[in-house]
């Protein structure tokens, strides 16, 4: 996908004043936050489960090469083919090779965020083949000229019912609908034809299970089930980090994933697919491929922000992020928005192209508190800020400001003098109302806010004077 | 009990009354308070802007100034959180400093937490005739576990009625230098906070961090609300009003 993360500020500005988007974002609370909160009580000890989830993910990452080899061996033993893609271009090339080998003309796809990284749909169409997205959200975006997703589990979250009705009317040539149920029925009717006509199904993969060579798919619409059982070829695409050692581990992670994502005890569908259709078996693809994707992940594994690879893509961090809740997913300018995107985007596309993302956080740590696998997201954002600082990516005036403050704060006498002057100036600027409307070089603050003016004498100066008064000393206050 | 008061730079410059209120409360609770005179900044602005070197230097300075005390108490969840949860990271490669930092971190407290758990403050000196709503600042809440402590103390203030607002745990948008670098987003977050405060019709919003106070009050005044007071929990508990306490020499 084209990277637009360098335009974060401009996009955030536009989205803050997009009233239709704002009304959709307001629903995050009811749609995700409240439901998640209510579902936690179903688990005896959610905190301990989070800790266990973190442990499982770390165990996988600590010996990733070993688990990947085990996965490859077990998947191959069940008749599947395991392929590795190092770059986004490799993903697309592998898919097209497989399609050519099996003379595929029509492909159906269930949701895969990894395939967004490589803009797979565009590559498929450029090769003259047909591809149809079957996740309702992804389908809506596809028929809207491949609009980018704005959320990792609700890609069309920003779209209103009316916009979808209009799109369906235009694309399907059907009378315009008003109810969500009618719209779903229409989508189901249209998509059903595509499932039956497709030669190949492409899915993502929530987990790759090393001990069995299986892929786990977590969905609510059942589209992944159809996409993996009706066509003769199935390709599952996911990152190397999605490996988990055992099915038992999947069970623990599944206690966390749907609850953290949508507040469901379990998603409507959980598919665990192992190997090709065997002799006498009724379900399954005749040919099964795994494309296991690197695309920057080994670099993350070797970096200070490695914990980001624990991510199980529930979306809780963005649902709970006050910045995401107000600027929406498109502001972030690439595949993964919100707090996790503020780590993954700079790591996968380059910090120089996305340095605003780790900076655009209040570090309130609401994301870290809700993360089901305990990724310390603000700490990772800070690590990337350190890299941006070391690489001199931040503007000179910001660096100067920080350097001047630290220099002064390390020299108490200079600090005392400097702050004494500063608070006097600020007091004068505040006038009678005690409010400063404009501060030079601090427009970021005063464009939207006043600055309450200080009283004009620092605590330090007042305290020193007070301590000299004998009455004060008798009360036992020391300097 | 020797308590080192870490005034914090924002209190020192922008709201000295908070420092005096904290001093008064600590003394009322029976603490022997020392105010190390060379103290400045905990280093959080440098740390969160990616400048580890300066952050380390400031942290080392602070550790040396406070390690003799039985407790370090700050009228701020953010600065006490910096010391308790982040100083360790700054010195991960320095065994001697790691031990000193761990020792200081273990005795670092946010003011209200200290008053509730480490002292027997029998009487809260403040009086407030009106209603207040409490905003849980992020670092206080999520790094220092400050939630019930300020409410327990406010409940003992004569005349005070607490009215909880919706989303009291949601960030006000301050975020240190975030408020400058992303002023527009920051202001929007403050808008949401101001709306929740207004919905309670409380006379004052009370909180425990001056950074968030400046942000909330700055946005509130810009939006034309000149009435709702924005007060630090220490000011309310001590009964000090910023106007009078701000300049006791006057």
Summed up:
Chain A is an alpha/beta fold and 479 residues long. Chain A is built from 26 helices and twelve strands.
CATH architecture of the domain at 42-295 in chain A: 3-Layer(aba) Sandwich
Report the helical percentage of chain B.
40-55%
Look at the structure and give the mean pLDDT of chain A. 95
- CATH fold type of the largest domain in chain B: Rossmann fold
CATH topology of the domain at 42-295 in chain A, what is it called? Rossmann fold
| Major sheet description of chain B | 4 strands, parallel
**CATH superfamily membership of the domain at 42-295 in chain A:** NagB/RpiA/CoA transferase-like
Q: Strand percentage of chain B, roughly?
A: 5-15%
Could you tell me how far the N terminus lies from the C terminus of chain A, measured between alpha carbons in angstroms? 61 Å
Which architecture of the largest domain in chain B does the CATH hierarchy give at level 2?
3-Layer(aba) Sandwich
Our count of domains of chain B comes out at: 2
CATH class of the largest domain in chain B: Alpha Beta
How many helices of chain B does DSSP assign?
14
Number of helices of chain A: 26
Task: Describe the 3D structure.
The complex is a heterodimer of chains A (479) and B (250). The C terminus of chain A is likely disordered. Chain A is an alpha/beta fold and 479 residues long. Among the domains of chain A are: 254 residues, Rossmann fold (3-Layer(aba) Sandwich); 79 residues, no CATH class. In chain A, α3 packs across α13, α10 crosses α11 and α17 runs parallel beside α21. Helix content of chain A is 53%, strand content 11%. In chain A, a hairpin with a 4-residue loop joins β5 and β6. Chain B has 250 residues and is α/β, with parallel strands linked by helices. Chain B folds into two domains: 116 residues, Rossmann fold, CATH 3.40.50; 119 residues, Rossmann fold (3-Layer(aba) Sandwich), CATH 3.40.50. Chain B is built from 14 helices and eight strands. In chain B, the strands form two sheets. In chain B, strands 2-1-3-4 form a four-stranded parallel β-sheet, with helices on both faces. In chain B, α12 links the parallel β7 and β8. The radius of gyration of chain B is 18 Å and the shape is globular. The C terminus of chain B is likely disordered. The interface between A and B is large, with 68 and 76 residues.
